[in-house]
């Protein structure tokens, strides 16, 4: 029997929804995680330490003390590479915290609304309607701006509207799951409601919800950058990409790299999350 | 149809009420005393107590909430302590600039429908891959960063367009492009999936079997069917557009509602924050109601489909 030759293409022609792209996206994402988790330990960075002599050095320039400023320096002579690495940690920590909060709240309220129906469902659904119609970033701006600056406030500000997408998805899935035979059977033999939800509903909801989590992570990272850009996010002692972009706005004419680099880093993180998310959505079932 | 319209409008009123409640509790929960913000840090305790009584801040929360709702119904948002003018007047005076920018951005974003339809009609081909990849990248960029990069290239390097402010028609180009960027990408994605879904329906296969070209099939048998989700989902994201405008206006010093809101939040100018947020909520609701009605007009399945 003749061997079937499979022609492998050198160039991944099918750009989207192929495992190759998803794998590449996952690898890029893993690199970001690695940089965010390990990078700050390897590259110390002090947001307060400024050096007038090393201001606005271009990419690859050498500092006064002979060290290399690989990605240049900003308007206060602070290292750009250090800011990017520490900013990666901030973005990832905020993104993960926001998604974890939203997922927990959204999954709980969504499955409850879908399973219990009746007034619980009406109340939760109306709350979802209100928050869906309202621009989430607006709410985040108001909350982050009126409360004291800090990591916790930013996470809360972004979560207030963020859980809604999870709740809506979980509710929709639960509505169709609660009439399935195994759920009826569990209810008939007297399994308590919380146990039914945890053991017989949530395992089927978790897949699509995970796919949604990637999109929400990307959204949270972008929103955090937006808040910090407006000066409403984190205090200036914490490096955030949005803040670095805002700082660089004053030096666009002379030092474009200050604003350009963090934006590229952000785009890379969000694109790879998005590609992975698209793939997961196809694999793990419906979203939207 | 009338019944459908009424139900849609009732939901809208509920949403505005919900937004008002949300804003009330956020402002009451926020640290910092409004009376102190109003009087400045040098005020005496007696002055602060007096101001608190005048603002009704010394009353129980439910009473305050009731008063607040009463004020909303009469469109009384109080005075801005910074400008000494009624907050509603200030907010309304900023509205035209914001509407202008949002409309310009929406016009640009319509390109997304064209690109999305192309991608959906040629699903899986190179043109789809190109457009989809581009849309994903555009959607992943922080809008304010796109704005800054546009300033860098178009205003500072090429010196083609002004980088900030208002005045000539040229001033709106960069803010509108920036605001449109994520929305265009979004419309592209929505249109693509909607068109692709419609392309798989039996009546489209029949149209092909009849010998029509792809172009004729798409214009004659796909576009209208695919339009409904584009209108409804697109309108749902009007709120994304308006939320984005808040940041984009700040980038370009565009004198709209968004930049007013951001400065008001930084200054703790509560009456402006409240008026601006509720006005934006009202606009979002109106857009959604309009979109629902358009969708019902386009597609009988929506208006006859019963509750959903």
TrEMBL record, chain A:
One term under GO cellular component: plasma membrane
UniProt entry keywords in alphabetical sequence: Cell membrane, Membrane, Transmembrane, Transmembrane helix, Transport
Main location: membrane
Gene3D superfamilies: MetI-like
Transmembrane domains' residue ranges: 21-43, 92-115, 127-146, 152-170
InterPro entries: BP-dependent_transpt_permease, MetI-like, MetI-like_sf
Membrane topology note: Multi-pass membrane protein
SUPFAM superfamilies: MetI-like
Any one of the GO BP annotations: transmembrane transport
Protein name in UniProt: ABC transporter permease
Domain ABC transmembrane type-1, residue spans: 88-277
Protein location: Cell membrane
TrEMBL record, chain B:
Membrane topology: Multi-pass membrane protein
PROSITE patterns listed in its UniProt record: ABC_TM1
Membrane-spanning ranges: 12-30, 101-122, 134-158, 170-190, 230-252, 272-295
Predominant subcellular localization, coarse grouping: membrane
UniProt keyword annotations, A-Z: Cell membrane, Membrane, Transmembrane, Transmembrane helix, Transport
InterPro entries membership: BPD_transp_1_N, MetI-like, MetI-like_sf
Entry annotated with the keyword Cell membrane: yes
Domain ABC transmembrane type-1: 95-291
Record Pfam families: BPD_transp_1, BPD_transp_1_N
GO BP terms: transmembrane transport
CDD domains attached to this UniProt entry: TM_PBP2 (cd06261)
GO cellular component: plasma membrane
Compartment(s) of residence: Cell membrane
Family: Belongs to the binding-protein-dependent transport system permease family.
Protein name, per record: ABC transporter permease
Natural source organism: Nonomuraea terrae
Lineage: Bacteria, Bacillati, Actinomycetota, Actinomycetes, Streptosporangiales
